[in-house]
Amino acid sequence: MDFNNVRLEAKAGIYRDGKIICRNFYLPDGEMKTLGYNSAGEYRFEVSAAELIEITQGEMAVKMPGEATFTNHGSGGVIKVPAGTVFDAIVRKYVDYICSYPNE
Fold first, then answer.
1. Is the pTM of this model over 0.85?
2. Cα 68 from Cα 26, distance rounded (Å)
3. How many separate domains does the chain show?
């Protein structure tokens, strides 16, 4: 996946002692996307806006509210997260992803 003519925020968002690193970029039409990288770990995420997570490398297992088990998502996988969701994730080695913020 390639993006042309974008504006990139140089300063990364670094979270959880450096285990999560994110950089925002903006498409010519103003749409924001985030490039993210998570190191190995177990995480709980709270999202306010809807997110579409596209895995580019690595793997992440996700358990959404109401689900009994984790579902593994590898390279090429897509995770749809509704607005206002709290979900759990397990990263065994690493995961590299692109996050979009679709309107619900």
1. yes
2. 36
3. 1
